[in-house]
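Preliminary data (for renewal application), S-adenosyl-L-homocysteine complex.
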Amino acid sequence: MTRVRHNISSGSLPRSGIELAAANPPARSFAFLPRFEPGWVWLTGAGPGDPGLLTLQAYHALQDADVVYFDALISDDILRLIPNDTPRVFVGKRAGHPSLKQPEITSKLVQSARSGCRVLRLKGGDPFVFGRGAEEAIALGAAGVPFRILPGVTAGIGGLAYAGLAVTHRDYNQALTLITAHDALGGLSSALDWEAIARGSPVLVIYMGFRLLDEISKRLIAEGRAADEAVAVVSNASTGKQRTVVTTLENAAEEVKQAGLEPPAMIVVGEIVRLKASLDWAESAFTSIAETQQAAAGI
Ligand code: SAH
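Predicted structure:
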């Protein structure tokens, strides 16, 4: 191992981390990244929106892919990272337009892979968290198409951190439940044991529950949660459009409506929400980003 010797006599002892890094530069190679081979599908998590939350694997795969199939929740900032000449195909749901059925999406992936493309399937958050990643992977495997999973930052953990919401704190909760609130028909999920959830988990992190907030709150109160329990609803987490409403179970639906919040949004129920005031590192930053952008645009 080569040791870096500092020239004490010159009086230039490195002090900061930056100076130390300059004295001992890291190997700037990404040789540890897997090779994206033709004929493979990489099911890739894009995180909740901030392109900085892409993994190194995801970023490099976007550069190497021959085609990218992406969902509705992929932010424009992330799509801009795809090289201009790489075909990108929207396969998500868009209001007012018929959406592709899951088998149609899978068959596009299979066809592309069989034609020898490196196929990147880009999904919001983490592909295995309420993202149908497992369904797609199983279908690819059944069709004999090799696949790799590139995990991503899920909205219900990393996205919430951008709103000063820590999903665990050892003084508050030793368990955490991730929930998708609705069933295949869009109503409040009847497959869930709401009583057990209300009783058993101090923190509930609810995906796809925005339009059902009123029903969810009422159901939780009916199953024994306190009407004044803290709730946060975070829309567009980690993007420049992030907004948060902090409220209580009994007031949540009304206050979110008053505030004019829009989906996509996460709902968090639990006393950890009360720590937000001490953990809020990002929302003030978003304000200053918005102000900077407005100043630059002369608004
Ligand atoms: N696989 C994704 C979740 C897909 S389900 C993940 O791991 O994050 C889609 C739901 O995720 C939305 O209805 C919303 O509840 C939540 N969601 C995704 N991105 C979000 C964001 N940037 N801000 C708030 N909620 C988000």
